[in-house]
Amino acid sequence: MKPNKKAFLRKALTAAFSLVWTALLFLPVGTRTGEAEESYECRWADGSVSVLNYDRAYPYLGGIGENGAISLLNGQTAGMVAASAEFSAAETALRSGGLGEILSVSASDTGRLERAALWRVYGETVWCAGGFFVWQGDRIGRVSSAVGTRAVLLSGGMSASALASTGATRLEIRPDAEVFAKTFSGTAIETVTACAPYFYEAGALYRDTAGGRRLLAGIPSAESVRVRGNDFADRGALLPCLALRELTLGFIGSDPYASGGDGADLFVWLFSDGSEFRVPETLEKLRVTGGKIGEHAFYGCGGIREIDLCGMDADAISAEAFLSCSGLRRLHSPRPVSLAGAYGVRVLPCGCLEYNSERGSDFD
To answer: Is 80 exceeded by the pLDDT of residue 6?
Structure first.
Protein backbone atom coordinates (compact mmCIF):
# COMPACT_ATOMS: atom_id res chain seq x y z
CA MET A 1 0.00 0.00 0.00
CA LYS A 2 1.33 3.44 -1.00
CA PRO A 3 1.85 5.88 1.86
CA ASN A 4 -0.69 8.71 2.18
CA LYS A 5 1.17 11.70 0.74
CA LYS A 6 -1.01 14.31 2.51
CA ALA A 7 -0.60 12.64 5.89
CA PHE A 8 3.18 12.55 5.37
CA LEU A 9 3.27 16.28 4.60
CA ARG A 10 1.18 17.10 7.68
CA LYS A 11 3.55 15.16 9.93
CA ALA A 12 6.60 16.86 8.38
CA LEU A 13 5.10 20.35 8.84
CA THR A 14 4.12 19.55 12.42
CA ALA A 15 7.63 18.38 13.26
CA ALA A 16 9.19 21.47 11.67
CA PHE A 17 6.87 23.81 13.57
CA SER A 18 7.66 22.01 16.83
CA LEU A 19 11.40 22.46 16.25
CA VAL A 20 11.01 26.18 15.51
CA TRP A 21 8.81 26.78 18.57
CA THR A 22 11.24 24.88 20.81
CA ALA A 23 14.09 27.05 19.53
CA LEU A 24 12.08 30.19 20.23
CA LEU A 25 11.53 29.13 23.81
CA PHE A 26 15.28 29.18 24.39
CA LEU A 27 15.84 32.63 22.91
CA PRO A 28 16.57 35.35 25.49
CA VAL A 29 13.34 36.87 26.87
CA GLY A 30 12.56 40.22 25.24
CA THR A 31 14.12 39.45 21.85
CA ARG A 32 11.07 37.72 20.37
CA THR A 33 9.16 40.90 19.48
CA GLY A 34 11.89 42.48 17.40
CA GLU A 35 11.98 45.49 19.79
CA ALA A 36 15.06 46.61 21.68
CA GLU A 37 14.97 45.01 25.10
CA GLU A 38 14.51 47.29 28.08
CA SER A 39 15.64 46.48 31.59
CA TYR A 40 14.44 47.97 34.88
CA GLU A 41 16.10 48.05 38.27
CA CYS A 42 13.52 47.23 40.92
CA ARG A 43 14.21 47.94 44.59
CA TRP A 44 12.07 45.67 46.75
CA ALA A 45 10.76 46.51 50.22
CA ASP A 46 12.84 43.68 51.71
CA GLY A 47 16.04 45.44 50.57
CA SER A 48 16.80 43.25 47.57
CA VAL A 49 17.36 44.59 44.03
CA SER A 50 16.33 42.90 40.78
CA VAL A 51 17.07 43.80 37.17
CA LEU A 52 14.05 42.78 35.11
CA ASN A 53 13.14 43.02 31.46
CA TYR A 54 9.61 43.95 30.38
CA ASP A 55 8.27 40.41 30.15
CA ARG A 56 9.39 39.63 33.68
CA ALA A 57 8.38 43.00 35.18
CA TYR A 58 4.91 43.30 33.66
CA PRO A 59 3.26 40.47 35.68
CA TYR A 60 4.26 42.35 38.86
CA LEU A 61 2.97 45.75 37.68
CA GLY A 62 0.83 47.45 40.29
CA GLY A 63 0.56 51.00 39.02
CA ILE A 64 2.12 54.28 40.09
CA GLY A 65 3.30 54.91 43.64
CA GLU A 66 2.79 58.07 45.68
CA ASN A 67 6.35 59.18 44.88
CA GLY A 68 5.73 58.91 41.13
CA ALA A 69 7.71 55.68 40.75
CA ILE A 70 6.30 52.57 39.08
CA SER A 71 5.10 50.10 41.68
CA LEU A 72 5.52 46.34 41.42
CA LEU A 73 4.08 43.68 43.67
CA ASN A 74 5.53 40.18 43.96
CA GLY A 75 3.23 38.35 46.34
CA GLN A 76 3.32 40.39 49.53
CA THR A 77 6.57 42.17 48.64
CA ALA A 78 6.29 45.64 47.10
CA GLY A 79 8.90 47.12 44.81
CA MET A 80 9.61 50.39 43.04
CA VAL A 81 11.13 51.20 39.64
CA ALA A 82 12.41 54.75 39.20
CA ALA A 83 10.59 56.65 36.45
CA SER A 84 12.01 58.78 33.65
CA ALA A 85 11.53 62.54 33.50
CA GLU A 86 9.25 62.10 30.47
CA PHE A 87 7.05 59.68 32.38
CA SER A 88 6.90 61.94 35.45
CA ALA A 89 5.84 64.92 33.35
CA ALA A 90 3.13 62.92 31.59
CA GLU A 91 1.80 61.39 34.81
CA THR A 92 1.70 64.75 36.61
CA ALA A 93 -0.32 66.30 33.80
CA LEU A 94 -2.79 63.39 33.69
CA ARG A 95 -3.18 63.39 37.46
CA SER A 96 -3.70 67.10 38.09
CA GLY A 97 -3.48 69.10 34.87
CA GLY A 98 -6.13 71.11 33.07
CA LEU A 99 -7.46 70.33 29.61
CA GLY A 100 -4.60 72.09 27.82
CA GLU A 101 -2.02 70.22 29.84
CA ILE A 102 -3.48 66.75 29.33
CA LEU A 103 -3.93 67.37 25.60
CA SER A 104 -0.22 68.15 25.35
CA VAL A 105 0.82 64.86 26.95
CA SER A 106 2.75 62.42 24.78
CA ALA A 107 4.11 59.10 26.02
CA SER A 108 6.01 58.31 22.83
CA ASP A 109 9.36 58.88 24.57
CA THR A 110 8.58 56.74 27.61
CA GLY A 111 9.45 53.09 28.09
CA ARG A 112 7.15 50.09 27.63
CA LEU A 113 6.69 49.51 31.35
CA GLU A 114 6.00 53.22 31.85
CA ARG A 115 3.31 53.21 29.15
CA ALA A 116 1.81 50.08 30.69
CA ALA A 117 1.70 51.82 34.09
CA LEU A 118 -0.03 54.87 32.59
CA TRP A 119 -2.64 52.61 30.99
CA ARG A 120 -3.13 50.66 34.22
CA VAL A 121 -3.86 53.87 36.15
CA TYR A 122 -5.63 56.03 33.54
CA GLY A 123 -7.12 53.56 31.07
CA GLU A 124 -10.46 53.65 32.93
CA THR A 125 -10.57 57.46 33.35
CA VAL A 126 -12.89 59.77 31.41
CA TRP A 127 -11.96 63.46 31.42
CA CYS A 128 -14.87 65.84 30.86
CA ALA A 129 -14.71 69.44 29.61
CA GLY A 130 -17.39 70.21 27.05
CA GLY A 131 -16.92 66.65 25.79
CA PHE A 132 -15.24 63.35 26.63
CA PHE A 133 -11.49 62.70 26.55
CA VAL A 134 -9.72 59.36 27.15
CA TRP A 135 -6.18 58.00 27.32
CA GLN A 136 -5.37 56.18 24.09
CA GLY A 137 -2.10 54.55 25.07
CA ASP A 138 0.29 57.34 24.17
CA ARG A 139 -1.83 60.49 24.25
CA ILE A 140 -5.27 61.91 25.09
CA GLY A 141 -7.98 61.81 22.43
CA ARG A 142 -11.46 63.30 22.21
CA VAL A 143 -14.32 60.82 21.74
CA SER A 144 -18.06 61.10 21.26
CA SER A 145 -18.81 58.71 24.12
CA ALA A 146 -16.78 56.96 26.77
CA VAL A 147 -17.07 54.40 29.55
CA GLY A 148 -14.84 54.22 32.61
CA THR A 149 -14.80 53.72 36.34
CA ARG A 150 -13.64 57.29 37.07
CA ALA A 151 -14.82 60.63 35.66
CA VAL A 152 -12.80 63.83 36.05
CA LEU A 153 -14.82 67.02 35.60
CA LEU A 154 -12.19 69.54 34.52
CA SER A 155 -14.31 72.59 33.77
CA GLY A 156 -17.86 73.71 33.14
CA GLY A 157 -20.95 71.71 33.87
CA MET A 158 -22.09 68.23 32.94
CA SER A 159 -25.58 66.80 32.63
CA ALA A 160 -26.61 63.87 34.78
CA SER A 161 -27.36 61.81 31.66
CA ALA A 162 -23.84 62.43 30.30
CA LEU A 163 -22.24 61.47 33.60
CA ALA A 164 -24.47 58.41 33.89
CA SER A 165 -23.50 57.30 30.36
CA THR A 166 -19.88 56.86 31.47
CA GLY A 167 -20.88 54.33 34.13
CA ALA A 168 -18.36 55.98 36.47
CA THR A 169 -18.59 55.20 40.18
CA ARG A 170 -15.89 57.75 41.13
CA LEU A 171 -16.01 61.46 40.38
CA GLU A 172 -13.15 63.94 40.68
CA ILE A 173 -14.17 67.60 40.73
CA ARG A 174 -11.62 70.23 39.69
CA PRO A 175 -11.79 73.93 40.71
CA ASP A 176 -13.28 75.19 37.42
CA ALA A 177 -16.11 72.66 37.36
CA GLU A 178 -19.76 73.57 37.91
CA VAL A 179 -21.57 70.95 39.98
CA PHE A 180 -25.09 70.87 41.41
CA ALA A 181 -27.38 68.25 42.95
CA LYS A 182 -28.95 67.56 39.56
CA THR A 183 -25.49 66.56 38.25
CA PHE A 184 -25.71 63.38 40.35
CA SER A 185 -29.33 62.34 39.81
CA GLY A 186 -29.55 58.87 38.32
CA THR A 187 -25.79 58.33 38.19
CA ALA A 188 -23.74 55.50 39.69
CA ILE A 189 -21.37 57.79 41.63
CA GLU A 190 -20.26 56.27 44.94
CA THR A 191 -17.20 58.30 45.90
CA VAL A 192 -16.10 61.89 45.26
CA THR A 193 -12.73 63.64 45.33
CA ALA A 194 -13.01 67.43 45.28
CA CYS A 195 -10.60 70.34 44.89
CA ALA A 196 -11.21 73.74 46.50
CA PRO A 197 -13.56 75.57 46.42
CA TYR A 198 -15.40 72.23 46.58
CA PHE A 199 -15.29 70.03 49.66
CA TYR A 200 -16.58 66.48 50.16
CA GLU A 201 -17.18 64.63 53.42
CA ALA A 202 -19.44 61.83 54.69
CA GLY A 203 -21.67 61.61 51.61
CA ALA A 204 -22.16 65.37 51.19
CA LEU A 205 -20.63 67.82 48.70
CA TYR A 206 -20.15 71.50 49.59
CA ARG A 207 -18.81 74.63 47.92
CA ASP A 208 -17.11 77.46 49.79
CA THR A 209 -18.43 80.87 48.73
CA ALA A 210 -18.06 84.48 49.88
CA GLY A 211 -21.26 84.02 51.88
CA GLY A 212 -20.18 80.79 53.57
CA ARG A 213 -20.14 77.05 52.99
CA ARG A 214 -22.98 75.83 50.81
CA LEU A 215 -24.41 72.30 50.80
CA LEU A 216 -24.67 71.32 47.13
CA ALA A 217 -25.53 67.65 46.94
CA GLY A 218 -25.72 64.25 48.53
CA ILE A 219 -24.26 61.22 46.75
CA PRO A 220 -26.73 58.78 45.10
CA SER A 221 -25.38 55.58 46.69
CA ALA A 222 -25.00 56.99 50.21
CA GLU A 223 -27.04 55.20 52.87
CA SER A 224 -25.75 57.45 55.64
CA VAL A 225 -25.06 61.18 55.19
CA ARG A 226 -23.71 63.58 57.80
CA VAL A 227 -24.11 67.27 56.92
CA ARG A 228 -22.18 69.65 59.12
CA GLY A 229 -20.27 72.93 58.99
CA ASN A 230 -22.41 74.45 56.25
CA ASP A 231 -23.98 77.90 56.49
CA PHE A 232 -26.82 77.23 54.06
CA ALA A 233 -28.18 74.50 51.79
CA ASP A 234 -29.39 74.44 48.20
CA ARG A 235 -33.00 73.51 47.56
CA GLY A 236 -33.08 69.84 46.59
CA ALA A 237 -29.50 69.19 47.69
CA LEU A 238 -30.39 65.67 48.86
CA LEU A 239 -32.68 64.72 45.97
CA PRO A 240 -30.04 62.38 44.46
CA CYS A 241 -29.94 60.30 47.68
CA LEU A 242 -32.32 57.49 46.75
CA ALA A 243 -30.79 54.93 49.16
CA LEU A 244 -30.61 57.18 52.21
CA ARG A 245 -31.30 55.49 55.56
CA GLU A 246 -29.68 57.75 58.15
CA LEU A 247 -29.22 61.52 58.02
CA THR A 248 -27.55 63.99 60.37
CA LEU A 249 -28.11 67.73 59.89
CA GLY A 250 -26.90 70.88 61.60
CA PHE A 251 -30.27 72.42 60.71
CA ILE A 252 -33.26 71.65 58.51
CA GLY A 253 -34.29 73.84 55.59
CA SER A 254 -32.22 76.49 53.83
CA ASP A 255 -30.21 77.86 56.79
CA PRO A 256 -30.23 77.92 60.62
CA TYR A 257 -32.81 80.73 60.59
CA ALA A 258 -34.99 79.27 57.79
CA SER A 259 -34.77 82.57 55.90
CA GLY A 260 -34.35 81.22 52.39
CA GLY A 261 -37.88 81.85 51.13
CA ASP A 262 -40.93 79.69 50.47
CA GLY A 263 -40.52 76.26 52.08
CA ALA A 264 -37.10 77.15 53.49
CA ASP A 265 -38.24 76.29 57.02
CA LEU A 266 -39.32 72.76 56.06
CA PHE A 267 -37.30 69.56 56.12
CA VAL A 268 -38.51 68.77 52.59
CA TRP A 269 -36.58 71.82 51.32
CA LEU A 270 -33.64 69.46 50.95
CA PHE A 271 -35.68 67.04 48.81
CA SER A 272 -37.64 69.51 46.65
CA ASP A 273 -37.11 70.46 43.01
CA GLY A 274 -39.26 73.55 43.44
CA SER A 275 -42.56 72.01 42.41
CA GLU A 276 -42.62 68.69 44.29
CA PHE A 277 -40.61 66.84 46.91
CA ARG A 278 -39.38 63.27 47.19
CA VAL A 279 -38.19 62.21 50.64
CA PRO A 280 -36.77 58.70 50.08
CA GLU A 281 -38.87 55.91 51.55
CA THR A 282 -35.68 54.34 52.86
CA LEU A 283 -34.99 57.23 55.28
CA GLU A 284 -35.68 56.01 58.80
CA LYS A 285 -33.33 57.86 61.18
CA LEU A 286 -32.82 61.61 61.44
CA ARG A 287 -30.62 63.57 63.82
CA VAL A 288 -30.74 67.38 64.00
CA THR A 289 -28.25 69.27 66.15
CA GLY A 290 -29.17 72.93 65.68
CA GLY A 291 -31.14 75.60 63.86
CA LYS A 292 -34.88 76.22 64.11
CA ILE A 293 -37.74 73.73 63.79
CA GLY A 294 -41.06 75.48 63.23
CA GLU A 295 -44.67 74.35 63.02
CA HIS A 296 -45.26 71.49 60.58
CA ALA A 297 -41.52 71.44 59.79
CA PHE A 298 -41.75 67.74 58.98
CA TYR A 299 -44.67 67.97 56.60
CA GLY A 300 -44.67 65.00 54.22
CA CYS A 301 -42.31 62.93 56.36
CA GLY A 302 -44.59 60.06 57.34
CA GLY A 303 -41.91 57.47 56.67
CA ILE A 304 -39.34 58.64 59.20
CA ARG A 305 -39.19 56.26 62.18
CA GLU A 306 -36.79 57.94 64.59
CA ILE A 307 -35.80 61.57 65.23
CA ASP A 308 -33.11 62.72 67.66
CA LEU A 309 -32.94 66.42 68.63
CA CYS A 310 -30.68 66.10 71.67
CA GLY A 311 -28.49 69.18 72.05
CA MET A 312 -30.88 71.59 70.36
CA ASP A 313 -32.23 74.71 72.03
CA ALA A 314 -35.66 73.73 73.37
CA ASP A 315 -37.07 77.18 72.55
CA ALA A 316 -36.14 76.70 68.87
CA ILE A 317 -38.49 73.69 68.52
CA SER A 318 -42.22 74.04 67.88
CA ALA A 319 -44.46 71.66 69.80
CA GLU A 320 -46.46 71.12 66.57
CA ALA A 321 -43.48 70.29 64.36
CA PHE A 322 -44.03 66.51 64.32
CA LEU A 323 -47.78 66.10 63.76
CA SER A 324 -47.16 64.87 60.19
CA CYS A 325 -44.75 62.14 61.31
CA SER A 326 -47.32 59.36 61.23
CA GLY A 327 -44.72 56.58 61.17
CA LEU A 328 -42.66 57.92 64.06
CA ARG A 329 -41.60 55.29 66.58
CA ARG A 330 -39.21 57.28 68.72
CA LEU A 331 -38.56 60.95 69.34
CA HIS A 332 -35.70 62.29 71.48
CA SER A 333 -36.67 65.89 72.26
CA PRO A 334 -35.45 68.57 74.71
CA ARG A 335 -39.04 69.81 75.13
CA PRO A 336 -42.60 68.42 75.30
CA VAL A 337 -44.30 68.12 71.88
CA SER A 338 -47.59 67.05 70.34
CA LEU A 339 -47.68 63.77 68.42
CA ALA A 340 -50.36 61.98 66.43
CA GLY A 341 -50.90 58.62 68.13
CA ALA A 342 -50.19 56.93 71.45
CA TYR A 343 -46.70 57.25 72.90
CA GLY A 344 -45.09 56.44 76.17
CA VAL A 345 -42.86 59.18 77.62
CA ARG A 346 -39.84 59.05 79.91
CA VAL A 347 -37.11 61.46 81.00
CA LEU A 348 -33.63 60.56 79.78
CA PRO A 349 -30.37 61.10 81.75
CA CYS A 350 -29.53 64.02 79.43
CA GLY A 351 -32.73 65.78 80.54
CA CYS A 352 -34.54 65.26 77.24
CA LEU A 353 -37.86 63.47 76.79
CA GLU A 354 -38.09 60.19 74.94
CA TYR A 355 -41.38 59.44 73.18
CA ASN A 356 -41.88 55.78 72.27
CA SER A 357 -44.78 54.44 70.25
CA GLU A 358 -46.49 51.24 71.26
CA ARG A 359 -44.50 49.51 68.51
CA GLY A 360 -41.21 50.18 70.29
CA SER A 361 -37.88 51.34 68.89
CA ASP A 362 -34.39 50.11 68.19
CA PHE A 363 -32.75 53.54 68.04
CA ASP A 364 -29.38 53.69 69.77
So the answer is: no
